[in-house]
Amino acid sequence: ISAKEVSSFFLKRAQSLNPRINAITSFNDHALAEAEKIDEKIAKKESVGPLAGVPFGIKEMFCTKGLKTTAASKMLANFVPPYDATAVERLKNAGAIVLGKLNQDEFAMGSSNENSLHGVVRNPWDVTCVPGGSSGGSAAAQASRLMAGTLGTDTGGSIRQPAHFCGVVGVKPTYGRVSRFGIIAYASSLDQAGPIVSSVKDAALSLEVISGFDKNDGTTSQKAVPAWSKQLNENVKGLKVGLLKQCMSGALNADVQKAVDNSLDILKKSGAEIVEVSVPLIEYAVPVYYLIAASEASSNLARYDGVKYGYRAEFKNLSAIPLEDFYGETRGQGFGAEVKRRIMLGTYCLSSGYYDAYYTKAGQVRRLMVQQYQEAFKSCDVILSPVTTSTAFKIGERISDPLAMYLNDIFTTSTNLAGLPGMSVPFSLSAEGLPIGIQLTANHFDEQRMLNVGLALE
Ligand code: GLN
């Protein structure tokens, strides 16, 4: 089968099914021509990469040369970048075909994909439910096989939580593994990119392709990228799996609880040792995360001022408009409600008089949280926990209650705060037939062991 045939199959499937779930925001008109080029290379026996001809969908957060990159915001509704994000460039160099762009929450702020310029994404398992967020389009497109692979971003759970809600594999690598160059910034000290795909092996391979040092991102690590996909090994004999105490108290829905118990049983039967570990400061992960994320977002989003690029409000007599009004109108019209909420919260936290009480304090708690994780990893190799307390919720159910929405991130945000790699691996179905994933977290740069345990659970 040729690369062109594969792309054309996925393209047709995506075009006919997408209207039901709204995961894809735009298609790449050149996809088939690009696939043809791969076929030509193969015919000429030229070397092609490990992803030759594999159709990928890319979250709207990633800059894609010549393809609209909106961040699902009116602010960037017509933005067509002149370059590719490093992660996208590396996918393409490996032979992948970018088939289209994928829906998300505006500027990746949200847990349900309900805050989007392009409208709500529906969960393919039950179209009355959310797919999770903010990479809801990636998870939904992957779950319904509209793409062979997708990329998402994860600032506080945006890869792992939608992967859990949609029954696919999502990996957020160690902070610094994947370049953030060309990814629209939300909260720079937390943002990481990673794959949302159908199997642990696909995750290992695509992560391998996009990882590694990039001179354009000073926070990328110089560490060599292991051949994760080749070294995958489901043998967990003798491995210590830490059950996170903080995730097992109360709040869990019965199906999620059962999935966690069953996953532990499987690992125990395969020879792993289960130990209880504790990261007490996880109790404060949500407030600390929202403080830091909102603060960094308020600073990162200051660039959208209507002057350089992006949306600009219309004015009858531009030269007579005071600058403050110019910014106010532009930003007032360009940003959605959730983004404005975060900008206001972040600006407040960073303002003089409050900075030390909020931002500095949150940074201190974050540092202590890292130490507690390091302590926990002295007694285990990989930490196991639920991804969220429940399965996918109904569309509209939490949209008017931001706090309830934020609490959904209780088990995912600490991973980003500590810069650790984390993944969600599909494990079982709830009584209503909705997917349940298991979250695995490993120590910095120990993706391999995390992926191995993922494989054992898959
Ligand atoms: N739900 C979290 C938020 O709204 C996480 C989002 C993300 O990881 N991009 O900030």
Automatic annotation (TrEMBL):
Name of the protein in its database record: Glutamyl-tRNA(Gln) amidotransferase subunit A
Catalytic residues in the record: 59, 134, 158
Cross-referenced InterPro entries: Amidase, Amidase_dom, AS_sf, GatA
Record-listed E.C. numbers: 6.3.5.7
Enzyme class: ligase
Described purpose of this protein according to its UniProt entry: Allows the formation of correctly charged Gln-tRNA(Gln) through the transamidation of misacylated Glu-tRNA(Gln) in organisms which lack glutaminyl-tRNA synthetase. The reaction takes place in the presence of glutamine and ATP through an activated gamma-phospho-Glu-tRNA(Gln).
Family: Belongs to the amidase family. GatA subfamily.
Gene Ontology BP annotations: translation
Record has Metal-binding as a keyword: no
Known catalytic reactions: L-glutamyl-tRNA(Gln) + L-glutamine + ATP + H2O = L-glutaminyl-tRNA(Gln) + L-glutamate + ADP + phosphate + H(+)
Name of one Pfam family that matches: Amidase
PANTHER family noted in UniProt: GLUTAMYL-TRNA(GLN) AMIDOTRANSFERASE SUBUNIT A, TRANSAMIDASE
Cellular compartments per GO CC: glutamyl-tRNA(Gln) amidotransferase complex
Keyword Nucleotide-binding: yes
Top-level division of the source organism's lineage: Bacteria
Residues of the Amidase domain: 8-451
Subunit structure: Heterotrimer of A, B and C subunits.
One Gene Ontology MF term: ATP binding
Sorted UniProt keywords: ATP-binding, Ligase, Nucleotide-binding, Protein biosynthesis, Transferase
